[in-house]
């Protein structure tokens, strides 16, 4: 039969099609056979190719091994089984090798390999790596070069990321890790043993140092725990970490052993300062005295949820609930701080106050204001939105009573700390207002706006007296303060203080002895001592202080009683801590023995000096010497003070109105 040109052409091509299909079938069969065999003939070519590509000597078999086990699977991903595997250390390293392992199985996904090859600087994700024995020496230099960084040894702009493992199961291993950017030096041993119930038990013990502090890590889990997996199924784990004097104990569930990116359970943290514990947890915390905190936590990557059942910080007893979101551009801490007691001195170092020993040293040097620099970088490290509800705030003074309770709202936004909505009660009175510390620059800016009302002085001032004697001072105190300053420490801020403070005491009384002592009325004072102290009604007690460049000066500072009127002028320098005060007392009664000369308070806050003004007393003493030549009893005449009772006109202007006018006149006179 005669074929057409088309059928003839198809007939002529059929043998070629058959040969093509046959070749493809043979090729598939060969790949299948080689896949089952494990591609043993590729061992040496693979070594050479990897060594050339990675610019590092790679061994997939031992040179003297008679029957090397090399099995490679390429379908569905790269799976490699070896008796021996070794990766040489980079040329700049002193280590004999980077990785050396026995009975190794490695699993890689093609998608991870493609992503790593096409994304410079990304971490290589290894699906699984198991071995009966693994020794590793991993290093990272300050310039960014890392031993796990291949094909290039030039410094990077940032530290090279470590590989990520979905599963890293090592029966026995020894790993050293040196990380100069982190200042971390670690030697770890790990073992994976089969448990009694068929589960695997992982034990990791690591010793070394972190940022100059001794580091000790012990980890135990009841299963094969991934080391640096981003996602994994949590299993029971127990972790104990000590860093310097800080310690963390955790028992719960975790998804990875090294990064601890997912964990939940009970914890206990203790140490010499919260800041030391924050370093171990990767969280910025303030400097405090010794502490211990217990509670439960949940961590998901960079986010923490912490419920604190009991926190002991120095003498403080606190609790609270907090959420720390570390994955944001600016980490955020939110929550609520509660507690039965908070001692202000326990948080003193956070705002620049020195420790107890430093206080003594400062006092010996004549300086009492704390000059420890603020930890402003910590203030800028994260934002915060925390509600405060404290039952008892101890002001750290033996004289001043605590605030009971204290409620406020603490917020930190880009380095600006604001404590607002302050509501506190003490001695039947109330304190309200706000405080702000702007730490965005090297020099902090401080502002305070506080007011107080109905504070009962006899209850607020804890000044005990012998027997059942009445308090030295009583009354209802009201006032307000608006102040600002700037500096790197509390001392610098107070040294630049500006603003105004006003306070007034109503319906108050004052100890008779204090008034007479201030006026140096010897006869009155002796009489008080013999017959017992009594109280004088205060018709006025008012202070109006101006602050300018760290110097406090009274505009009006007056106290008026039925016995005497006393006013104060002069200055107090918060910058140099110098005192220059003058106290003048004008009696309203007759006293046979009275110097009635102004008191001078000079010196410094750390070493005050109280003396008499020499001018007025010198004249009285000279007169006494002359009169004593005539009659010894005449020497008492200059010391007899007939007093200066209010005139009828002034008597109608009682209280602070009259005293303010007289104080102003006294200042103009002097």
From TrEMBL:
Pfam families: AsmA (PF05170). Residues 226-554 form the AsmA domain. It comes from the Bacteria. This is AsmA family protein. It comes from Limnobacter profundi. InterPro entries: AsmA (IPR007844), AsmA-related (IPR052894).
